[in-house]
Amino acid sequence: MADIEEFTTEKTLTEILVYYISLLLDYKKIILGTTFISMVLVILFSIISIMLPPHISPLPNQYRAYAIVLFHESGGNTGMMSLLSTFGVESSTSETSVTQLAIKVLQSRSFIDGIVKNFNIINKYNIETMVTTKSREIIIENSEYTLDRDTGTLAISFTDIDPVFASELVNYEVNLLEKWFLEQDVSLRSVELSKMEEKLNNLTKEISEIEGDIKNFQQQHGVLDINEIASVQSAMISDLRTILNQVELEIDDYSEYSTIEDPALTILKNRRQNIINQIMRIEGGYVSSDGRNMPSTQELPQLSMNFAHMKAELALKNQLFQTLSERYEITKLAAAEEGVFRVFEYAEIPEQKIGPSRGRLCMIVTMVAFMSSIMFSLLINTIKSINPDKRRK
Question: What's this model's pTM, rounded to 2 decimal places?
Fold first, then answer.
């Protein structure tokens, strides 16, 4: 039973196929005629489009000119990261960030307006309404920017029916972009150098002030280091206390043998008092015979701390000055180095078109005409079948 049903189905499909083939054969003149005429017309259209001048041809040849630029970030490229952040591009140490910035610049209105003005795009394309918007659209729609992340290169291309114009426009874009990066780089370096110079001048003044304070301190106390005063005073007081102990021993020994105030005992007591006065004088601070202000023992810790702070601050300022001076010199040398932008290849006048593919156009039109003629034949047959008066005999 199943075999009978399968046989019946195959027979039915075969009959349907034969029916439609015979039906299309009845309309072969329409199908073949329509296909042939369409093929001839599209071929003639293609030939005419080639023979006519590009500016009036309905299907002119398109040429694409391209240039390749290389971006690199060296150590001397100071300040470029701040420029990236200014334009909203994520900052990194790779060349990709700078390339993305270049694409943003190429697509900016001010940059495109410069190209429009230089090549008189409005008159070249006969733009009469919304001239600014349409002229920008022409540049944007015909431009292409291809980023190669592996090599850090950017291909800048432009497509037009005039190969010479396309190459000139791309090279102008490259030169304009190079000039823009150079101006931005120089501007950033100038600002940074100015800030460095100002900071160096301030550090120089601060160092001079600290050095003056240290010099005044040393002149006032007659020493190069406050620790010397502490050492000298400690030694003097120690010596005086030793002498005082010896004098007191002599007074004690002399008092055991003499009960009266004789001149020798008086001299010893006076000597003891003089030693005590000298110790008190040293401990309380005094002015030396050469005009030096000798601090008291109570002032020495604070003076020592102040002097240590001045020396530490001077050392810190000198270290900052040295570091900033090195950076300043590196930045000045970097100004003479090559920037991040380098032209790898300028655009050449393209000799081979990139489109349109007229052969493919002819094939597509012919196939569409063939399929359309089949559908049209089936439609005619359907109408005849509905209308008894025009039913096919």
Answer: 0.54
